Each structure stands twice: as C-alpha cells, then as structure tokens.
Amino acid sequence: MLKAICSKKDLSLCAYYDCIRDIINSTELQPLKDITHHISTTRFQHCLNVSYYSYILCRKLGLNARSAARAGLLHDLFYYDRKEYNSQRHKGQMSHSLMHSLIAVRNAEQLTNITPLERDIIEKHMFPMTVKLPKYRETYIITLIDKYCAILEVCVPKICGLVPAHRN
Q1: How confident is the model at residue 8 (pLDDT cuts 50, 70, 90)?
Q2: Can you say whether the dihedral through the CA atoms of 162, 3, 152, 38 is positive or negative?
Q3: What does the pLDDT look like over 60-112, one tens digit per residue?
Q4: Quick one: which of 31, 32, 54 has its CA closest to 42?
Q5: Residue 64 DSSP class
Q6: String of b and e for 7-33 (b: at least 16 CB within 10 Å)?
Q7: Helices and strands in the chain: count of H runs, count of E runs
Q8: Main-chain phi, psi angles of 14, to 5 degrees
Q9: Could you tell me the sign of the dihedral formed by the alpha carbons of 105, 107, 108, 112, in that order?
Q10: Which residues, including other chains, have CB under 8 Å from residue 136's CB and lie 6 or more apart?
Q11: Which residues pair with 41 in a beta bridge?
Q12: How far is it, in rounded angstroms, from Cα 154 to Cα 116?
C-alpha cells in the first residue's frame, strides 16, 4: 500500500495518484527506496510525503495541485549520500543544500517533461537558502511542506515507538 506519513489513506486509490501515475514506478525513483533520509525514512518516502501533502494543500487553496504533486515527488531526485558529499566537498564547491536541487532538476528532466512551475518548485524548494526567490505560490507551499515532512519523519517514529523498516 502506498501511504504518506501520518495518513491511513492508500494513495494508489485516490485522485492524487492520477497526477503521479506515470512517474511513481519509474526505474529512476526506485533507488530512492534504499537511501536513508531524515534519519528514520527513505528518500522515496520523504518525496512521497512532500508530494502528497503539497497536493492536498494546493488543492484546498485552488493552486496547481498536479504540478505540486509531481514536483514534490521529484524534488529530492538525487542518489548520493548528502553527509558524504558535505564531508568531501572542496572550498568553493556548492553545499549539498544548494547543489541537490540542481541535480534533482536535471534528473527530473531526464525522467519526464517538467513545466516551468515544476522546475521552479524543484530548484527553489530549499528557499531561503536559494539565492533567487520562488516565482510561484506552489513553490512556497512545497518549501514549507518539505520542512514539515522532515520534522514528522524525524519525530513521529520516536513518538510512536516505531522502528524504521530499513533497519534491523
């Protein structure tokens, strides 16, 4: 069952799924299921969480929920270990916080056609760390939801006494 954190809904059975149907099972997203992200989840699950909750909020606000869902799913589409990257980066080289969004955009473009809105969301989801301001309201939503999901992913397993599935 495809589920977002703190949700009991099977996401493959709702309107949200129609927005991401063509990319959710792509071979490019599958490696994200094996990469730990925010201590207690995988990068795939984090992207799914951001995607779903951004979709919900954008839909309620009358914004472009489809693009929010798609960009949310692709916003962290990179395959390296961020801690390893930061420990090995050289002086003058971009930090992970700035670099990964550019890599994610490139990877997203190789996977599917992205709209200018989706590009803005993926490139600037780390605002205010990004130099440029987001152009769209949906980008601000993703930025906030990304932080919200990161907090949930770190705290909920501890509060609920859950052991992450990817650990022994």
Answers
A1: confident
A2: positive
A3: 999 999 999 999 999 999 887 666 655 566 676 666 667 788 899 999 999 99
A4: 32
A5: -
A6: eeeebeeeebbebbeebbeeeebeebe
A7: 7, 2
A8: -125, 175
A9: positive
A10: 64, 117, 120, 121
A11: 37
A12: 31
In the prediction, which pLDDT does 163 show? 45
Collapsing DSSP states into helix, strand and coil, what is residue 9?
coil
**How does DSSP classify residue 35?**
S
Residue linked to tokens 């994200």: 32
Supply the pLDDT for residue 156.
Answer: 73
Rounded to the nearest angstrom, the gap between the alpha carbon of residue 103 and the centroid of all alpha carbons in its chain is 13
User: How many Å apart are CA 132 and CA 113, to the nearest integer?
Assistant: 23
Q: What is the DSSP string of 90-109?
A: PTTSPPHHHHHHHHHHHHHH
Among 158, 118, 122, which residue's Cα sits nearest to residue 5? Answer: 158
Mind listing the pLDDT tens digit for each residue in 11-44? 998 999 999 999 999 999 999 998 877 667 889 9
Query: In terms of pTM, does the model score above 0.70?
Result: yes
